[in-house]
Amino acid sequence: MMIKSNDISNEEIIEGIKNRDEKIARHILKNCFWMVEEYIKSKGGTTEDAWEVFQYTYIAIYQKTIEKDVVLYVNFPSYFLGFCKNYWLKELRKRKRSGYLEELDEEQKGECDEIIKQIIRKEKYSLYIKFFDKLPGLCRIIFLMHFKKIPYKQIAKELGLTENQVKRKKFGCKEKLIKMILKDPRYMQLK
Fold first, then answer.
1. Closest CA to 179 of 116, 130, 131, 122
2. Cα–Cα distance between 189 and 191 in angstroms, integer?
3. How high is the pLDDT of residue 5?
4. Element holding 161 (H helix, E strand)
5. d(CA 119, CA 124)
6. Residue 84 in contact with residue 49, Cβ under 8 Å?
7. How would you classify residue 37: left for phi > 0, otherwise alpha for psi between -120 and 50, otherwise beta?
8. Is residue 131 helix, strand or coil?
9. Mean pLDDT of all residues in the chain?
10. How does DSSP assign 20-44, residue by residue?
């Protein structure tokens, strides 16, 4: 099914997200953010809330594209807004509950602690993505191939390198990524 959003098909958008295409990211920002912002504000949120929901949704959809093939049966902006609405409603429920934390019993506090841990994991992932995008192209390619469990031998062949070069490059890229993350003030807050 070929559904289009401003002359770009759903398939092109999903493929662009998967491949971290800047043109597609700008297209999504231009065509979806205003809808997200309008919805969030209509439900008591702010522009800052809308931006957080937008970013979360983009990352979540990216993760889905990495894990499996995504097929849409509606246009992409509708899909994106639906995803944002679901996330925002969960966020509102969580915010309402957080005012009652001191009244919770031990089991409920444990559940809240687990939710907080999940949020921290998502924040760490967001930080990882931020700096992953700043890595040189070859680093990102090697990591993405590695994440897809492609053997070093095949990565080396496709990139015209030796296996040892790929391993050394991956190690160097990992070190660079870790250094960038550790320097970010948000990381210290998440520890």
1. 131
2. 6
3. 47
4. none
5. 9
6. no
7. alpha
8. helix
9. 81
10. T-HHHHHHHHHHHHHHHHHHHHHTT
The domains located in the chain, with CATH, are 1-98 (1.10.1740), 122-191 (1.10.10)
Per-residue exposure over 120-144, b if at least 16 CB sit within 10 Å of its own CB, e if not: eeeeeeebeeebbeebeeebbbbbb
Q: pTM here?
A: 0.48
Backbone region of residue 160 per phi and psi (left: phi > 0; alpha: psi in -120 to 50; beta: other values): left
DSSP 7: T
Three-class DSSP labels, 74-117: CCHHHHHHHHHHHHHHHHHHHHHHHCCHHHCCHHHHHHHHHHHH
Question: Which residue in the block uniquely carries the two structure tokens 């005012």?
Answer: 99
In this structure, what is the dihedral angle of CA atoms 146, 148, 141, 72, given to the nearest 10 degrees? -160
pLDDT in tens, 100-158: 444 445 555 556 566 666 666 777 777 788 888 888 889 989 988 988 889 999 999 99
Encode pLDDT of 152-183 as tens digits: 999 999 999 999 999 999 999 999 988 888 88
Contact yes or no for 33/24 (Cβ under 8 A): no
d(CA 169, CA 142): 8
Q: How far is it, in rounded angstroms, from Cα 158 to Cα 152?
A: 10
CA 51, 54, 60, 63 dihedral sign is negative
